[in-house]
Design brief:
Elements: E1 8-13, H1 19-27, E2 32-38, H2 42-51, E3 56-58, H3 61-65, E4 72-75, H4 82-91, E5 95-99, H5 106-119, E6 123-126, H6 133-143, E7 151-159, H7 170-173, H8 175-186, E8 192-198, E9 208-214, E10 220-226, E11 233-240, E12 244-248, E13 256-259, E14 263-265, E15 273-275, E16 280-281, H9 290-304, H10 312-330
Parallel strand pairs: 1-2, 1-4, 2-3, 4-5, 5-6, 7-10
Antiparallel strand pairs: 7-11, 8-9, 9-10, 11-12, 12-13, 13-16, 14-15
Helix pairs in contact: 1-9, 4-5, 5-10, 8-10
The chain binds nicotinamide-adenine-dinucleotide.
Length: 349
């Protein structure tokens, strides 16, 4: 961007399922223009170009990188391409928004981070839930001590969502969201991260994963991630020492509910605790599209020369945790079918 008032010229690379949503939101931000649309698939480019007729189009990212008038590139390409493409974008001197997760390995995420530091450019990772007004409200309640002086445990259910992907399992595709929220709430990295999973539909790609994490403060967490479930859930429950709260993204209205159900010491007994049975309340949550908030954060952080909320470092922390959970998955059999159950008959005697 040459001047404060000049429009921020943005190029979108990757125009499959998600990229067009990013293009729509960036195009709606005052002072932003979609200057380039890029995808290897000419049909995807043509569909996006019909909605953004002012943008130039290409199949080759290099066309964006060599345009001196382009300020920033938004990457919505497949996950394995994220870190290498982000490095190229940053080395070309452009700001970079990259979809989640930042990389498939912590070492690659670090390369992207270093490229951003060397270039003095913004690197932001699209951890969408961190921009959800309901998650922000949950974080504010938690930080203000409204749930108690300690968070005991958290569990997340992300079930029956999205498409089965060939290059990502449920941990990386669904869990990237929950791990980012978990790290946001915890404010620390786990000392223990264990996962179990199974691949029922596509060999080697876990479609159901159960994670357990333990943090230095004593906080524990459980994540249930699955593409194979009769229930459609996107829910997060936080159990504090005084209150409990649930963020339910499937709820149309009461997305966040706080329960007055801490444990009280019963003064009539010796050291026994009783469960409080107070009421519940649902704070009003602003009805704003989280993707719009996320896109605005990218633009505002570039303009202000400050780090965005979900910057490269926080993206790296998420990848570090996912990598540990994946190592745990790799250490087990993984296809969910014990040998004696195959074909309904015992195998190998
Ligand atoms: N935040 C969210 O809630 C959310 C939701 C869906 C997807 N995503 C993320 O968005 C990204 C894309 O997912 P999708 O579902 O749109 O995938 P997709 O497969 O539908 O689209 C990816 C597109 O990238 C293009 N592409 C691949 N390599 C390219 C390259 N080098 N240069 C230009 N184009 C290239 C492909 O042709 C394809 O059109 C993934 O990282 C995914 O995790 C995020």
């Amino acid at each position: 961007m040459s001047a404060e008032s000049a429009p921020l010229a943005i190029g979108i690379a990757g125009l499959g399922y998600w990229g067009p949503n990013l293009a729509r939101n960036f195009a709606a931000i005052p002072g932003c223009e979609i200057a380039w649309l890029c995808d290897r698939d000419p049909d995807a480019v043509a569909r996006a170009a019909a909605l953004h007729p002012g943008a130039r189009t290409t199949a080759d990212l290099d066309a964006l990188l060599s345009d001196p008038a382009l300020d920033a590139v938004v990457l919505a390409t497949p996950v394995p391409t994220h870190a290498p493409l982000a490095v190229r974008v940053l080395e070309a001197g452009k700001h970079c928004f990259v979809e989640k997760p930042l990389a498939t390995a912590a070492a690659d995420a670090e390369l992207a981070l270093r490229a951003a530091q060397r270039a003095g450019r913004t690197l932001m990772v699209g951890h969408l839930l961190e921009y959800h007004p309901g998650v922000r409200a949950l974080k504010e309640l938690s930080d203000a001590g409204e749930l108690g002086d300690r968070i005991y445990y958290v569990y997340g259910n992300r079930l029956n969502l999205g498409r089965l992907r060939a290059d990502e399992n449920a941990l990386w595709s669904l869990g990237a969201h929950d791990v980012s929220v978990l790290l946001l709430l915890a404010g620390e990295e786990p000392v223990e991260a264990v996962a179990h999973g199974a691949s029922y539909v596509r060999p080697g790609v876990q479609d159901v994963v159960f994670c357990f994490l333990r943090f230095p403060s004593g906080l524990t967490a459980h994540l249930h991630l699955s593409w194979l479930d009769p229930h459609k859930e996107r829910r997060f429950t936080v159990v504090g020492s005084r209150r409990m709260a649930t963020f339910d993204d499937m709820a149309l209205e009461r997305k966040l509910t706080v329960y007055d159900k801490g444990f009280d010491e019963d003064a009539r007994t010796y050291g026994e605790y009783i469960t409080g049975s107070g009421g519940s309340f649902s704070p009003r949550i602003a009805n704003i599209e989280p993707l719009r908030v996320e896109c605005e954060e990218f633009v505002e952080s570039i303009r202000a020369g400050r780090a965005p909320r979900s910057d490269g470092s926080s993206g790296l922390r998420v990848v570090r945790v996912l990598e540990r959970l994946q190592a745990s998955l790799d250490a087990e059999r993984g296809d969910g079918v014990a040998p004696r159950q195959r074909n309904g008959a015992p195998v190998g005697g």
